[in-house]
Write a structure and sequence with these properties.
about 45 residues, mainly alpha
């Protein structure tokens, strides 16, 4: 559970710092989704 929270916090920080354009937001959201999915797969 801590990994998921840490990954979500990291993804949130990346989203806030790197979304200067709409394209950037799309990439950031995709990256965050991949991070959460990987963390979920690891915790199975």
């Amino acid at each position: 559970m801590r990994k998921i929270i840490a990954c979500a916090a990291l993804a949130g920080a990346i989203l806030v710092s790197a979304c200067n354009t709409v394209e950037g937001v799309g990439r950031d959201v995709s990256s965050a989704g991949s991070t959460v999915a990987n963390a979920a797969d690891e915790s199975k």
